[in-house]
Amino acid sequence: MAPIDPWHWLALCQHELLLFAGVFFLIGALDDLCVDALFLGLKARGRITTPRRERAALMQQPLAGAAAVFIPAWSEAEVIGDTLARLLAAWPQRDLRVYVGCYPNDPATIAAVMGAARHDERVRLVINASAGPTTKADCLNRLYAALCADEQRLGGAFAMVVFHDAEDMVDPAALALLDETIAAGADFVQLPVEPVVQRTRSWFGNQLGSHNCEEFAEAHGQALVVRAALGAAVPGAGVGCAAARAMLHRLAAHQPDGRPFAAASLTEDYELGLLIGEMGGTCRFVRAWGDDGTLIATRAAFPARLDHVVRQKARWVHGIALQGWDRTGWGGNLAERWMRARDRRGPFASLVLLTGYVLIVVSALAGIAMLVTAQEQAPLPPLLKALLIANLAAFLWRMGMRFGFTARIYGWREGARAVLRLPLANVVAIMAGRRAIMAYIAALRGGAVIWDKTPHPRHPVAPTPAPQQGGQTKLSSVPDFSSVPD
After folding, report:
1. Residue 28: partners with Cβ closer than 8 Å, 6 or more residues away
2. How many CB atoms lie within 10 A of CB 293?
3. Where are the beta strands (DSSP E) in 246-376?
4. Is residue 128 a contact partner of residue 134, using CB atoms and an 8 Å limit?
5. For residue range 422-473, what is the model confidence (pLDDT) as tens digits?
């Protein structure tokens, strides 16, 4: 038998990679198409609507009950002061208390929080008993203990707890929207998260820092909407969400250690909504436009350095797709299991994406080989050709959906950039998938679970809003990033 030359081995490798990538790309595309079809069908039947609310009315609406805001803060001295200044100005309600969790070995963040507390008595500094970083969930448990102590000392009870990160830019109308939804009987509420488009001196940093815009636009404009409409539990994003105080008490009573948040979890926010749903609680995803044409949402600047972006995405993949499989299992009805499967496809999707890019390299080498050897490429089998056509059609449809959801919030120019940023987003997904798998393997071998947080060198907006007539405060909904450093 004559030996097969290297070019034939290359052609065989190309064929097998094409088959593997084509099949699994199509499976993922069909999964997304099912969500698209449900979204369009529910919207056509009027079961999905995005109401328009008057911002001024929401901002003046009194709270139905006292509200607490939990902000875990490890090594956040550069941004926590600006975040608190904006939050306190946006939410002037006196029956609001902001609990900020710090660590004894982080004096700079403690000093920044104390500076805010000196100007507003609603800020409550809570210092963890352990040196940082622990996990975000551990810090939240410390904040919950402080809240319980305050309730016992003051003889009252909060109605809801709102969750935010140290770099968030809250929406002035969001607190009232969360409050009225909890007052109407919801146990957990999630508002949309809107990453801000970055305009710095670095083109690559701009695209890297802005690629979350299209991902959240699609996830919080469609996927979570469908999820809620199907009756599946709504996972928390960790920001712009709230839980009823009574439900947190139930969660704490349900845990062996009496604490509502699992200290060993990397994505306690994601688990929070799922656990509340499993316990029979009502989870809602609330999406509303303000009368000024902007979405009532939490805004934040995502990292714009490659190592920071990969670290953040890896933490999400590790906590949701890998650790979440172990921790939350596959309970619930068919819709719930489907949504959890979608949440956990990240590592395998990274592998399929990597295969696709390897296929591009192999195909380029095969093309060079054909030119050198003057050989003709073997025709593709009809089934494989049909698979490629189906994938191309699905890809064009997906890009159209991504453009549409992004353009709806950010305008058509950013929608076009979202399509062009796809290769960059894919590379980030591949790198984050690898890092997540390595971290998961280390955890299985007994490695400690720590808060692998993303650094925030500077808050993106000026903290001091300009007062208007009548004592109202004007806050920019969409910050200007033209002066943000690289």
Report:
1. 345, 349, 352
2. 8
3. 283-285, 289-290, 298-300
4. yes
5. 999 999 999 999 999 998 888 888 776 666 677 766 666 544 344 333 333 3
